C-alpha cells in the first residue's frame, strides 16, 4: 500500500476484516470455515506469533478462538519485517499482510525479493502502473482490480518456490506429458 494512504487503508481494512464471521462452512452466517487440520492451525499460529515477535502489528485477529475445531480468524498484519517467516513461506491460511511502499519500483523490488510467487494482486486505476506491474512482477498469476487470479481456462501455478508446474488450461497437460521423438525407416526396406 502506498505510504500516503497506508495507515488509513490498513485501519479500514482491519475494521472490515474484524467483521468476518468464522464458523461451520455450511452455516449461512459464516464467511470462513475451519482450516484443514490441526497442523495447519499450528502453522498459522506460528507464523503470526513470529511476525508479532519481529515487530509486525496485529490489526485484527491474531489469536485462535476458544472453540472446538480447526478455526483461526482472519488476521491482518501490518509493517511485517522482511525476516518474518510469513514473508518467507506461504501461509495458506487467513492472514492478510499490509506493508507500505514509497514508489512502484520499491513495491516491485519488495515483491520480487520474496522466494515465492504463486499469485499477485494489485488495485490501481493507473494504466502505466498496471503495465509496469504486469511486466515486472515475478508471479505465476497476476490479478488487477480483482481477486480472481485464474479460471478453468487459464493455467495456474507459481514461480520460484511456489507450486509444481501448472494446473488448468492446455498448459497443465504438459505437466503430465513426456515428449518422445520416434524415428524409423520404412519397415519393408529395413527387412529386405
Estimated radius of gyration:
22 Å
Task: State the name of the first-level CATH class.
Answer: Alpha Beta
Strand content: 5-15%
| Shape, principal axes of CA atoms | globular
Major β-sheet annotation: 3 strands, mixed
* CATH homologous superfamily caption: Aldehyde Dehydrogenase, Chain A, domain 2
Average pLDDT:
90
The CATH topology name reads: Aldehyde Dehydrogenase, Chain A, domain 2
DSSP summary: helix tally? 6
How helix-rich are the residues, as a percent range?
Answer: 25-40%
Distance between the termini: 75 Å
Secondary-structure arrangement, i.e. CATH architecture: 3-Layer(aba) Sandwich
Give me the strand/helix succession: HHEEEHEEHEEHH
What are the low-pLDDT stretches, counting only 5+ consecutive residues below 50?
Answer: none
Largest sheet, order of strands side by side? 1-2-3
Would you tell me the structural class of the helices and strands?
alpha/beta
Multimerization state:
single chain
Q: Can you count the beta strands?
A: 7
Summarize the structure.
The chain is α/β, with parallel strands linked by helices and 192 residues long. The protein has a single domain, classed as Aldehyde Dehydrogenase, Chain A, domain 2. 29% of the residues lie in helices and 12% in strands.
